[in-house]
Write the structure tokens for this entry.
Amino acid sequence: MKLPGITRHQKLYAAMSVSLLALAGCGSDSSLPQLSEAVPASFTGDCSTVAASLTALKGTVITSSSTVAAGVLSNINTPEHCLVTGKMNERVSAVDGATYYIGFQMRLPKSWNGRFFYQANGGTDGAVSNAVGALGGGPVTSALVKGFAVLSSDAGHQSQTTPFFGIDPQARIDYGYNAVAQLTPMAKDLIKSVYGKAPDRSYLGGCSNGGRHALVAASRYGDQYDGILGGSPGYNLPKAAVAQLWGVQQYATVATATLATDKTASGTVVTLPKPLPDVSTAFTATERAMIASKIVDKCDALDGVVDNWVGDVPACQKAFNVSTDIPTCSGDRDGSCLTSAQKTVLTNVHAGAKNSAGASLYSSFPYDAGISSAGWATWKYANSTGVGRDPGATAFIFTTPPQTDTINFLGLPYAMSFNVDTEAPKIFATSGLYTESAMSFMAPLPPSNLSKLYDRGAKMIVYHGTADPVFSFNDTVSWFDSVKAVFSSNTDRFVKLYPVPGMGHCSGGPAADQFDMIEPLVNWVEKGVAPSTVVAAARGTGTSTIPALINAEVPASWAPNRTRPLCPYPTVATYNGSGDMNLAASFSCK
């Protein structure tokens, strides 16, 4: 079997997996076990006594346990529950002298649905977020609201805004995959201690780096989870970070202003030896809105109706042309056109990062109207030049060996001087203490390693905004295609990919970005009901009294609560020919 785009090592595993699947008779529906439904339970005791009773959790210290009354948590009404906090495997690094541990919190509802949800967090982790269990896109509900016991962690280091933990080899590995390995059995034991039984069903989900955690867990720990939910999965995160730095150098060629200062990780303002391009001036908000409008003009009708929304993103890639569909400036930049140089940069960035020999460093990106969103600019400009994001992550976490100067490191100079020919290969390197490369500890194992997940009847749903500016939707399609190369027609029996047209990174953009992915996942895992469409809603003005729940980028021409069906790839939402264009029921997946 030919598996394009993967390594010889991956091909070997793929061949082994195909043989195993054939032997297992996976072509028949009866070959997959049907997992039973979780059985609810309750906790009627005193939450404050939980810590004292948890003495047998290996390598674990419970630091507090208390009752949290029903009320608003992370903008969502949440039931009464126990909050337990703790840490695992505390140690002092022999490399950088810092203290490390895996910090966590668990929220355990008094009325429990019998399920466990591992909340995989985003960014470079480093902080324990509220363990509520976000379930996809804009906030609509949570795993905790649904009765799950939910775990959140810092993935093994206590530095959310700086990447310097990457100097410690074990902290790298904990961040990449080992925190999940350590926390999963501990959490299940803790749940058993509280409710008198272990969880009947276990789920893991997250977005961004949390989506990467999900795909990694599916490949490494497929025997420990029944359902995996991966959003905007940065599963090639080191490659994406390199692409971000390459992008800075592209934007610098058309920037119209310069910066004379930069900030260190501590926030100290430093004067640069020479001014450097202010890449945020490469494409202004007005210019990006113009680009978005041209994409809509060209592609709006491709899904069967003119509704100021591009539903058929794949068809748009064939229809839209930067050269002919965007006006070329004949004079000064005024927001109504792009210069020839800007068009070149726009084309290059969407084609994907390459080294000087033309070899691909990361995936291409689809043209999408979501380029107008504020999140696009944040990721392409601010996050690609800041110490705490791509420059720092590349230098200290993904490069082997890592940088060591944590005092004077600056993001913009590093990005501008990054040599993709000599530095990008270091994400695949090992050296001395650093026995695993970034692409080893960060990326999921080859798709053939999903056989444990498949064989036990577990399921996985992946969703991704087509306007994501940092983790390419096209890259996730490549991953999905590599899974199909191994599992062929059986892929649809346990993995589904849902594109979200117009949505940026995890949420936002001109999109219907409010949806619940856990309900269809649970029904698929525990009832054998495979999901088809998932209805998503916009979060326009007036849909909530909580400002944080409003998406200001919903177009004014839409109904504020417009709905659309999210369709399993490769189908797209297509207008039925009649009906309210603001209702999902007027569209079908074709």
